[in-house]
Design a protein that fits this description.
globular; 434 Repressor (Amino-terminal Domain); 71 residues; mainly alpha
Length: 71
């Protein structure tokens, strides 16, 4: 397994962990990131190497959501 594949799988795992900690569904994260729920599922499962932009969009959406003030 190449380093790029290992790194992508670690990052994909982080998406799952953070999404769950924030209490988001895949559908909601997908809407926030401009991605489909199916794409989020594929990223989290790590069955293939996601496009770097897909990971960037997922992480960016999670970051923005976690930084939002809560009521």
């Amino acid at each position: 397994m190449t380093e790029a594949v290992v790194l992508s799988k670690l990052e994909a795992g982080e998406v799952l962990v953070v999404r769950q900690r924030l209490g988001l569904t895949r559908a909601v994260l997908g809407r926030l990131a401009g991605l489909s729920e199916q794409t989020i599922r594929h990223v989290e499962q790590g069955n293939h190497t996601p496009h770097p932009q897909t990971l960037t969009r997922s992480r960016s959406a999670l970051q923005k959501f976690s930084d939002a003030p809560s009521d």
